[in-house]
TrEMBL record:
<dbReference type="GO" id="GO:0015658">
    <property type="term" value="F:branched-chain amino acid transmembrane transporter activity"/>
</dbReference>
<dbReference type="InterPro" id="IPR052156">
    <property type="entry name" value="BCAA_Transport_ATP-bd_LivF"/>
</dbReference>
<comment type="similarity">
    <text>Belongs to the ABC transporter superfamily.</text>
</comment>
<dbReference type="InterPro" id="IPR003593">
    <property type="entry name" value="AAA+_ATPase"/>
</dbReference>
<protein>
    <submittedName>
        <fullName>ABC transporter ATP-binding protein</fullName>
    </submittedName>
</protein>
<dbReference type="GO" id="GO:0005524">
    <property type="term" value="F:ATP binding"/>
</dbReference>
<keyword id="KW-0813">Transport</keyword>
<dbReference type="Pfam" id="PF00005">
    <property type="entry name" value="ABC_tran"/>
</dbReference>
<keyword id="KW-0067">ATP-binding</keyword>
<dbReference type="InterPro" id="IPR003439">
    <property type="entry name" value="ABC_transporter-like_ATP-bd"/>
</dbReference>
<feature type="domain" description="ABC transporter">
    <location>
        <begin position="7"/>
        <end position="247"/>
    </location>
</feature>
<dbReference type="GO" id="GO:0016887">
    <property type="term" value="F:ATP hydrolysis activity"/>
</dbReference>
<dbReference type="GO" id="GO:0015807">
    <property type="term" value="P:L-amino acid transport"/>
</dbReference>
<keyword id="KW-0547">Nucleotide-binding</keyword>
<dbReference type="InterPro" id="IPR017871">
    <property type="entry name" value="ABC_transporter-like_CS"/>
</dbReference>
<keyword id="KW-0029">Amino-acid transport</keyword>
<dbReference type="InterPro" id="IPR027417">
    <property type="entry name" value="P-loop_NTPase"/>
</dbReference>
Length: 248
């Protein structure tokens, strides 16, 4: 785990098109093997930050116009998703986006495609890991992904990302729209993935869940980092309790 690099986002500005400023001077670090939570209201810029790291910003007509995104020695700003995946950084997009018409197994096979030709044994090992982590998927490998429940689709989306054997997993609101029991299950899985040595950057509107998992957390507010600190400390601040934990 000590060999694993840190993610460093330094003073990043992001623009969509030529006018919509989505992030301003945002800095954030995910240490090797860490779990970092990124909280914030709708439209605060959380997904934008993940896209700036995973190289998917351009697909949304956005660009990093200032600052740096580095994973260890690898420059990620201005690159594409293949560059990020090769560096070991993989995003699970918001809203799951599994291929509804493909089977569970076919969806898993699309994970890690950006890595080029890999040894079959390596792919088989990644698949085994995913099916061990998600027994519900193991029972449904030949079922169309569109027939899975929302929670199962989220598991599949995470499993597909794990097929690329990431060192840093970027998760965009994995709890969105899921029943409380499924949210607990997803939280357990994130803990397990991290225990196996994968660092996690977790975007969530469910601040309670995110703060219970994270070592460190940041709060984004209209494109700027407003608060940051150890997750336990942030969970005790008045602003976070009121705005994000739903307390009075
Ligand atoms: P949500 O939880 O709703 O996804 P978020 O915190 O992830 O919110 P972003 O999706 O990153 O926020 O959006 C940040 C800002 O950038 C918002 O004002 C949004 O309207 C704008 N934005 C996002 N994508 C685009 C785009 N493709 N083109 C123009 N503006 C965009």
């Amino acid at each position: 785990q000590d060999q694993e690099p840190a993610l460093r986002v330094t003073d990043v500005d992001v623009l969509y098109g030529s006018a919509v400023s989505a992030l301003r001077a945002v800095s954030l670090t995910v240490p090797p093997g860490g779990v970092v939570a990124l909280l914030g209201a709708n439209g605060a810029g959380k997904s934008t930050l993940l896209r700036a790291v995973s190289g998917t910003l351009r697909l949304h007509r956005g660009a990093v116009t200032a600052g740096l995104v580095r994973y260890g020695d690898t420059v990620l700003d201005g690159r594409d998703p293949v560059a990020a995946v090769r560096a070991g950084v993989v995003q699970v997009p918001e809203g799951r986006r599994v291929f509804a018409g493909l089977t569970v197994d076919e969806n898993l096979r699309t994970g890690g495609l950006g890595l080029g030709r890999r040894a079959p044994a390596q792919v088989a090992q990644a698949r085994e890991r995913v099916l061990t982590l998600f027994p519900r998927l193991a029972e449904r490998t030949r079922q169309a992904a569109g027939l899975l429940s929302g929670g199962e689709q989220q598991m599949l989306a995470i499993g597909r990302a794990l097929m690329a054997s990431p060192r840093l997993l970027l998760l965009d609101e994995p709890s969105l729209g899921l029943a409380p029991r499924m949210v607990d299950r997803i939280a357990e899985v994130i803990r397990e993935i991290n225990a196996q040595g994968t660092a996690v950057l977790l975007v969530e509107q469910n601040a309670g869940m995110a703060l219970s998992l994270a070592d460190h957390a940041y709060v984004l507010d209209v494109g700027e980092i407003r608060l940051s600190g150890p997750a336990g400390e942030l969970a005790r601040t008045d602003a976070v309790r009121r705005l994000y934990l739903g307390e009075q």
